[in-house]
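Researcher: Please generate the 3D structure of the following complex. Treat every line as part of one assembly.
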Amino acid sequence: MKRPKDQLKAHIRAQNQTLILETSERVFARQGLAKTTTQMIADEAGLPKANIHYYYRSKKDLLEAVLERILRLWLDSVSEFNVEEGPKHNLTRYISEKIDQSRINKNASKIFAMALIGEETFVLDYLRNLFVTELSREKATIQIWVDKGLMASVPTEHLFISIWAMTQTYADFDAQVKIMLQKDQLVEDDYEEAKQFITRMVLAGCQVMEVEV
Amino acid sequence: MKRPKDQLKAHIRAQNQTLILETSERVFARQGLAKTTTQMIADEAGLPKANIHYYYRSKKDLLEAVLERILRLWLDSVSEFNVEEGPKHNLTRYISEKIDQSRINKNASKIFAMALIGEETFVLDYLRNLFVTELSREKATIQIWVDKGLMASVPTEHLFISIWAMTQTYADFDAQVKIMLQKDQLVEDDYEEAKQFITRMVLAGCQVMEVEV
DNA sequence: GTCTATACAAAGATAGAC
DNA sequence: GTCTATCTTTGTATAGAC
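Model: Done. Output below.
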C-alpha cells in the first residue's frame, strides 16, 4: 500500500523526468546528438548535472528515453488507412498529417533523423518492428484499391519512402528549405503549399481516380 | 624557380592531403561528424595523429576541407537544364543523375546531410550562393516550358525540394530504406525502381506532355 | 616533413555529505 | 531526492626531437 510520502516522491520523480526529457529534446535537436552534453541539458533544465545522471544513468539511456517518447507520440499523430474511404482521401490526409507533424514537432523529427542517419540501433530496431506490423497492413489496403481500379499499381515501399522523404525534409532540413524559399521563418502558408504540391504529385503519380467512392 | 626538392615536398603534401581527405570522408560518414575523432582518422589513414593536425590545423578546418571537396564534386556530377530538350528529358535525366549520386557517392551525401541538419555555417553559406546562381536559372527555364504549354505551372522551389528529398533519402537514410525493402544491401535494381517511380510522380505531378519536342 | 610525448580542456560518471 | 566535489577518460592541439 502506498503511503503519502511515496506518492510525493513518485510525483517529484515524474515531474523531473518530464522536465529532463523535454529539455533534452530541445537541446539534442539544437546541438546534435553527439555535441549535446549532459551539462548543457542540466543548465537549460536548471538542475545540477548529477541529477540528470540520477534519473538516467548514462547519456545513452537518456537519449533512448527521449527517442522512445518521440516515437510513441508519433505513432499517435498519424491516422491509419481506412479502406472504405478510398485512396484519394487517405493519401491526402496522410500527407497532410505528416506535414503537420513536421511543423508542430520539428524537434522530434530532427532527432529521429539524426538517430537514423547515425544508424542508432535503438531506432533501427523500432523501425523493423513497425514495418512488420504497420506497413504490411497499409500495403494490403493499397492492393485492395489497386484491385478495385481506384489507383494504379505502384511499388508501395518506394511510395512510402518518397512520402516520408518529402514531408520530413520540411522539418529535418528546414535550414535548406528556408534558403530555398528565401525566408527567415517558415509560415503556415509554406507548409500548405508543400502539402498541396506533394499531394498533387502522389495522386497523379499513382493515377488515383478523381471520383469519390 | 622550383627546385626538385620543392617538387618532392609538394608531391608528398598533395598525396597526404588526399589520403587524409578520403579517409576523413569515410570516417565522418560512418561515425557522424561530432563522434569522429582525429585519432580515428589517423589510425585509419595509417598516420600519427600529429600529422593530421600538421595538414589541417583543427578538426573544423578538416571538416570544411572535406565538405568543400564534396561540394565541388557534386556540382560537376549533375547536368544543367537544357531548355531545347524540353521538360521530360531534363527532369528524367536530373532525377536519374541525383539517384546515381546517392548510390555512387553515398558517403558524400551523408556528410552533406549531417552538416545540413547540424546547420553548419559552411554548408548554409554554400547553399545560399548556389541558389542565387543556379536555381534562378533553372526556374527561368521551367517558366519557359510552362509558357510553351509543355508542363503545368508548379511551385518551382517545392519541386526541387521534393526531388532532392526523394533522391537523397536513398543515400542519407539508406538504413531505413534497407529495412523497408527488407534487404541487407541495396542493389542497382532498387535504385532503378526508385528512379522510375520518382520520375513517374514528378512528370505526372507537373503534367509534363508526353510528346517529344 | 614526421612523429613521440605531453599540455590542457572538457566530458561522462559517481561518491558521499546533506 | 539533491548537489558539491572529484575521479577517469578522452579529445584537441602543440612543442620539440629527429
